[in-house]
Amino acid sequence: MKYYIIVLFLTFSLISFAQKVEKDGKTYQVKNEKIFLNGEDVTETLNAEKRTVLLKEAAMISEKMKVEEKAKNKKIKEAKKLEKDRKKAEKATKKAKKERKKAEKALKKEKKLKDNYKNAQAKLAKAQKKYKKLKKKGKLSPVAEENWLEKIEKLTDKVDKAKRKM
Fold first, then answer.
1. For residues 104 and 113, what is the distance between their CA atoms, to the nearest angstrom?
2. What is the pLDDT of residues 51-99, one digit of tens each?
3. What is the model's pLDDT at position 31?
4. Is 112's pLDDT higher than 90?
5. What count of other Cβ atoms lies within 10 Å of the Cβ of residue 165?
6. Which domain covers residue 135, as residue numbers?
7. Number of structural domains found in the chain
8. Confidence check: pLDDT of 46 > 90
9. What is the Cα–Cα distance from 69 to 67, expressed in whole angstroms?
10. 107/101 Cα distance (integer angstroms)
11. How far is the C-alpha of 2 from the C-alpha of 149, rounded, in Å?
12. How far is CA 163 from CA 50, 66, 96, in A?
C-alpha cells in the first residue's frame, strides 16, 4: 500500500510540472501554453512556427507521460488483482482443509460410537451367558441373583444408550 501511494504521488508531481523540450541545443519549458527559457517567458518572442513546434512536442511528451501513467496504473491494478486472487485461493484451500478435518473428525466419532455399541453388546452377552450358567448350576444365592440382574439391567441400559447415540 505504501508503494502505491508513493508511485501515485510521483506520477502526479511529474504531470503537474512543466514539460521540458529540447530544441536547437536549448532546453525550453512549456507550461500552460507558455514557453520559458531559463525561467523567462519567451512565448511572444518566438515566431509562430517555432512556438507551434515546441507546443506540439510538449503535448507529445505530456501524452507519452499519460500513457506511461496509465500503464503503471494498469500494472498496479493487475498486481492488486493477483494478490486478491491469491488470497482467495488461500482462503479456499484453508476452508477445504477445515472441511476435510471436520469430516475426518465425524468419521472418527462415528467409529468410536460403533465400537462402544459393540463393546456394550459383548459385555451384555457375556454377563447374560455367565448369569444363565451360574443359575443353571444353582450357584446363585438370592442376593447374588439380584446383583446379577441389576448388572444385566445396567448393561442393557448402556447398550440402549449407545444405540441411541449412533
1. 14
2. 787 788 888 888 888 999 999 999 999 999 999 999 999 999 999 999 9
3. 72
4. yes
5. 13
6. 2-165
7. 1
8. no
9. 5
10. 10
11. 79
12. 99, 75, 32
